[in-house]
Amino acid sequence: MNFLLLDSADFLAPDRAVITGRRLRQLIDTIRAEPGKLCKAGVRGGDLGSAEVVSIDAAAAELRFIPERRPPPPLPLILVAALPRPQTFDKVLHVTAAMGVKRIFFINSFKVEKSYWQASRLAPEAVEAELALAMEQCGDTIFPEIEFRPRFRPFVEDELPELLRNRRGFYGNPAAPFPVPHGAVTAEKPAVLAVGPEGGFTDYENSRLEAAGMTGISLGCRVLRTEFAVAALLARLGM
Predict the structure, then answer these.
(1) How confident is the model at residue 17 (pLDDT cuts 50, 70, 90)?
(2) Which phi and psi angles does 182 have, rounded to 5°?
(3) 182 exposure class (CB count in 10 Å sphere: 0-12, 13-18, 19+)
């Protein structure tokens, strides 16, 4: 935990909050907080700042929150990712949220197994818990919107063109002749990025993405794990 994420429900007064559970254990075991100590903190959906420990024991900690600045700017990019296997889903969700993406669609693809859609990691409470860890790690308070689309064609034909309105569109394709453009995504040039399963989308899926207005870009001929491909694409596009 790089900073303490507070929720509106934690506050007893505008500047006083009480926490328990996992965050309390981290204050005690990791930060070794004691009365008077200042910790990096932020309020979900609001400012970043400091939290002064007023009192702390095994049951709860009372904090005084001191707002100081706004959260970091978002990465102006919408991610569309083929739903990865359950053990990879958390990694993709975490790295994407930590890098500042604020809207993420997980979609179906020919290579996505049907069982993935029943995974417990997709439950709202599991997604919420992983996002909270990502926000604490990167020092942000604005949670991304997560949406699931279990049908590829309706999403690509009906929703993707609207997402691409006033945005550039890229999709990862190891066979594409165009390398990933460095720094192509800015506040003035927002984008949509689609990332397929390991090995990429099928030829049919590539053709539908291109028909919607997307351009294939490549990180090279090596097949990367999904979480590595997502991180590399986001880093190079937003560099």
Answers:
(1) very high
(2) -75, 130
(3) exposed
